[in-house]
């Protein structure tokens, strides 16, 4: 199979009307929001065409999506006890997360996140009246268990219920949490009475060398929840759907989720996501091979063109975290909650001077300043041109 990232041409990509390709002028190379520059997996495209041909565009129904995820989880992750009876379809991962947090916390309660982390974690949690407490990652971009323990203790001590929104694998550092790390997380969560919601949207994007561990497969995690989706790995984020899964001890909580939440995902989303998990494995393997090559290419390009920038090699996902603090570009963050498209510091500078759009580190919370996130789910030519442009811009000022 050909490399999916080498299929669409730049001209074809520029005709796309989604956020990645429309938010900036045509001379900007967009390596920011988490969309992939691929054509659809053929079996997924066929499933969508089939539904359209049948006029099959009503409300979603049934458990086909969860069944496809269970089959995939059993084959890829040796997670054999995903119980379909403890699943619900939800509109997308973030709205699923919000609905799950509503089941186990009340307004004013604390939700812990590991900053720097996917920016909408802040916006969605606070919009729903919960307080975000940050437990910063270690300098290696991984969960720091001592810091997490302190955050759990602080939140539990302040009264009210406490939840922890785990990003597994982690966006933006690409850390793939190990089974030992997750066991310790589960042990801490039990000790402090913290309910865990694990966002596993990037799970299928873990290459064979870095094993993904579903949080619910870890002993002690039975009272937790996970949310999975085909949205990132098969580039279906514009065709909305996701699956929420409860551990055995959280089943009763999940049953309290309003039935109407399951009317939110689009039926085409459910059809295409289920098909992706069911038959999209070969295509996904080609994506993973392409990402491995790109992960190495970005490392080499940063070494060659961006002296002073540190590349945190991502184990999983198609996102990489670049530490640009040595470049000394000042941050001028907007007041209040940052949104994904806010730009400051190095991301602002590279947009203005190199015409490359990256995600700005400051929107990922504490620890994000002075960093940028680069999305490498694109062709090698685009990556090479983008990082070379960044290098040329820097050498102009150095
Ligand atoms: C960690 C994480 N969670 C959730 C999302 C968004 O998922 P959805 O569009 O299904 O809400 C993203 C998108 O990049 C993400 O990286």
UniProtKB/TrEMBL annotation:
Its cofactor is pyridoxal 5'-phosphate. InterPro entries: Aminotransferase_I/II_large, Class-II_PLP-Dep_Aminotrans, PyrdxlP-dep_Trfase, PyrdxlP-dep_Trfase_major, PyrdxlP-dep_Trfase_small. One of its GO terms (molecular function) is cysteine-S-conjugate beta-lyase activity. Keywords: Lyase, Pyridoxal phosphate. It holds the Pfam family Aminotran_1_2. Residues 57-389 form the Aminotransferase class I/classII large domain. Coiled coil: none annotated. Its EC number is 4.4.1.13. Belongs to the class-II pyridoxal-phosphate-dependent aminotransferase family. MalY/PatB cystathionine beta-lyase subfamily. This is cysteine-S-conjugate beta-lyase. It comes from Mycobacterium attenuatum. The lineage of its organism: Bacteria, Bacillati, Actinomycetota, Actinomycetes, Mycobacteriales.
